[in-house]
Amino acid sequence: MPRLIPLLLLLLLLLLLSISISFAYPLRTPRSLAPFARRLRPRAPANYDYETRFFQQRLDHFSFADQPPFQQRFLVGSATAGWGRGDPIFFYCGNEGDIEWFAANTGFVWEFAPRFSALVVFAEHRYYGESMPFGSKERAYKDAESLSYLTAEQALADYAILLTDLKKNLSSENSPVVLFGGSYGGMLAAWMRLKYPHIAIGALASSAPILQFENIVPPETFYDLVSNDFKRESVSCFKAIKESWDALEAQGKEHNGLLKLSRTFRLCQNLNNTDALSDWLDSAYSYLAMVDYPYPSDFLMPLPAYPIKEVCKKIDNYAEGTSLLERIYAGVNIYYNYTGTVDCFDLEDDPHGMSGWGWQACTEMVMPMSSSEENSMFPAYNFDFAAYGDECVESYGVKPRPRWITTEFGGHDISKVLEKFGSNIIFSNGLLDPWSGGSVLQNISDSIIALVTPLGAHHIDLRPSTNNDPDWLVKQRESEINLIQSWISDYYQGKKGASNSM
Fold first, then answer.
1. Is 148 marked active-site?
2. Going by C-beta distance under 8 Å and a sequence separation of 6 or more, which residues neighbour residue 338?
3. Is 433 a catalytic residue?
4. Quick one: 244 and 331 in the same domain?
């Protein structure tokens, strides 16, 4: 039976990730790839000095009922030299995870804030990290009633209230705010700029799939792009992965076939069927496409530079007599065990899993995904909304509302709408990132800008700079800085003009 984003991952993206992926034949429900990626073991940002603070938030911003508040965690940079009243505030819209993890992986904001004497703030998304309504994750995630306040709308209202109060307490109401976010956080940054233009003067939305919703982009887009990344490195690797699904199913039906599969893939528990193993492989390929960075990283897992190339080397270069599935194992071992420290793999222990995203994907963040026979290396399937909805009812007791997110934030006819009513948003995307297919890839106006890099991966521009950054990445970041500089200059010029006219 198809499994919903097994308490997923979100998704991861989401990342991840989504932001997405479950592999049951013939149906496949997007499982945990929230467009966003995250790790459950956050690390403190090295060299990023900040204070941890908490702000009392309303549980429901859209009701006047007397409800218990909760404490929202946020990080405030404490080493921004020269910041004073009226100077800019760089505000990161927290994703579906621990805010310290995002702060550690968003070096771009920390690194160029001093150019503007900007105060850096990272705000945690409600129901993630330590920002738990009802006092604990157990109570917050108890049922549909307690989870009902976990929405993008409530999160954006949190950010707006937090910013307004922070500026007041700092006696800096005139400070211009620039929003930042990657993946789901990028979606939030773009949507917040549109919903609260009086709160923030602009937004950098990196790898933000705001169009990955019903009847906007083809549902095959995500998996076709994942497949293209592998085909780009090696056609034979692409073909081997495409053939491996049938080989896996066939072996699973053999006498002792599931036991053989468990041993081939070094699983901690013997398989009862092939579904979990298919999910596990699917996740590896999808995340590899997201983080196909040109340098070593540990964003999702410790990985070498150009990890897809390394995976395909393992799949393509094999000893005589090695089976197809043994080659597949050698490849995905790059993703799950590059350090060589894992003795066996527990398929029930998803290293990216977050049940909060499972709820979001079952309510408003419905991102239909299919797999095409011709272009995909994954088994062909069509998104089945009815079955998806049944899983959501079974898992959370709710039915998805696939049209709500575009009703609330838009998405259809995006160019016409944003050209007329939007301004000061950068949509940055790397075309190796499968989430780029659901983002804005062309300039819409002079101030709604798309920065697209053919060799970029998942919000690589927001990651800390390294000595191995390619020239195109350095230039992309400089373009972003120049655009942000123009927003801030225009803001101060406007303030000056308004003051002189009084």
1. no
2. 301, 302, 303, 304, 307
3. yes
4. yes
